[in-house]
Design a protein that fits this description.
Helices cover 24% and strands 18% of the residues. The protein contains 3 helices and 3 strands. A hairpin with a 7-residue loop joins strand 1 and strand 2. The chain starts with 12 loop residues before the first strand and ends in an 11-residue tail after the last helix. The mean pLDDT is 83.
Length: 85
């Protein structure tokens, strides 16, 4: 389950893979226009429909970070965990 809101990965891409192994690379900005900014990657997976076989359901979704690592990770909003805790 991926509870990442699309608004936190705006400049990146999402790549869902169908049960038939068909995959697509979707710009997050376009997904926000179709859905809404507060929708999560998990909710997009549940709403996705394969353009090849028409099946509903995604077996895997990858978030593809765009740009060099400093730029890509600046929009990831990944909090650091304190190792000492």
């Amino acid at each position: 389950m991926n509870m990442t809101p699309l608004s936190s990965i705006t400049y990146n891409r999402v790549s869902p893979t169908c049960l038939c192994t068909h995959w697509n690379l979707l710009p997050v900005k376009e997904l926000i226009e179709v859905f809404r900014p507060d929708i999560t990657v998990d909710q997009v997976e549940k709403a996705a429909c394969c353009t090849k076989c028409g099946a509903k359901g995604v077996i895997r979704t990858q978030i593809i970070y765009v740009g060099n690592s400093a730029i890509a990770m600046s929009t990831a909003h990944t909090p650091r965990k304190n190792v000492d805790e």
